[in-house]
User: Fold this.
Amino acid sequence: MKLSRRKFILAGAAATGWTMLPGKVLGANERVNLAAIGLGQRGGIVGDFSWQPNVNVVALCDVDIDSTAPIANSENGRLGWANAEVTPAARAAKYPHARKFRDFRRMFDEMGDEIDAVCIAVPDHSHFPITMEAMMRGKHVYVEKPLARTFHECELLMKAEQKYGLVTQMGNQGHSGDNFFQFKEWKESGIIKDVTHVDAYMNSPRRWHPWEHVNGFPDAMPMPEALNWDVWNGTTPDPVEFSERMHYGNWRGWHQFGTGCFGDWGAHILDTIHEFLELGLPEKITAKKLERPNDFIFPLASTINFQFPARNGMPAMDIDWYDGTDNPPPVPKEMEGRSRGGPGKFIYSKDLVFHGNSHSSRLQILPVEKFRDMLKSGEVSKDYGKHSSHAANFIKAVRGEEQTRSPFSVTGPLCQMFALGCLAQRLGGELEFDRATNQITNNNQANSLLKDQVRKGWEQYYRV
Assistant:
């Protein structure tokens, strides 16, 4: 019997587990052949790579790659603005020499030898299988945040990174901006020290907020003819029918497919706090407030507390996460009467209070007058240098010129914290977490949800 390359690989995987050779790190001037998977909501990131020197986009993959339906980009989904020029088909048309696919597995089967690296911008629930397939094939990987949907999937991706020795980067773009270098410098110089509490927040409206009486997955709607809905469902144990409340973008509000507001924005707000304060995983997660919790979609508002023990000379600390349009954090007295701006955080240490927004926004010391004095005296720096962008950092790492700033070894535990927070948003109460065994010890249901059931035919991705 003649086997396709993929069937041959899968047969070997079933018997022995994946043993693919790691991908090579290219030379400084070598061309990087890139495949872009996902051209919808965040699919525009392919442009961040295509203008990097000597990067060639050779393949494009999207389950709806010929769609000319405008991609609505507001938090209210299709009720918001929609630019007719921002469609998967329009994005694909910018790369006329790239081959097009609707199934990432077929793309790797037919073009695997021509691809050096991939960028992945698909719904949260599909991050894991696509990323794992790429790594098993020896491809360097850039994947949008969060790294994966479940705690277990993040753990497996970290193991795969170690096993295959590949360049990895998660797409929390601010982790290559000023906030990264400022936080690192302030931590090393002792400006940021003895942090005991953080309030982090994102209070914009979300897509699922207008939905009423959700007691199950949405009814089936007529499906676009060219859409590969089977691949869209991915590893989902019980595939759902097509609905516009899933595609495009509306998947984020469903526990089975997204990570809600926390997984969406936490990586842009808490990333430097988590890395440079060496937080690792919390020992207790508490749902302090849940507004209209639901078995299927995320609540309208939540306040979730994370407690971390003392570590490496730093005191025990906790984080309160606030989301929901009417659920802002308390404002420190040093900032009363001033706008806190968009999504961000307040950091409370023994001696100083810091305020910052999201992504690469710099921190300020409160009160502002004190910050101005510290800048004037030279106690804190005004300039954190010029550095490669997040996309450039990845490409340079593929060429062996830099190390990525958001490798899976760094972002995996961060995204596992998000997964734990999402469980608290779903189930409520207190969750006791054993950092040594990676188990929730006081709630069997929550502990079982650390990993998902796997759809038949997709099990190979869960063997590392």
Q: What stands out?
A: The longest strand covers residues 195-202. The chain is about 30% helix and 20% strand. The longest helix spans residues 408-427.
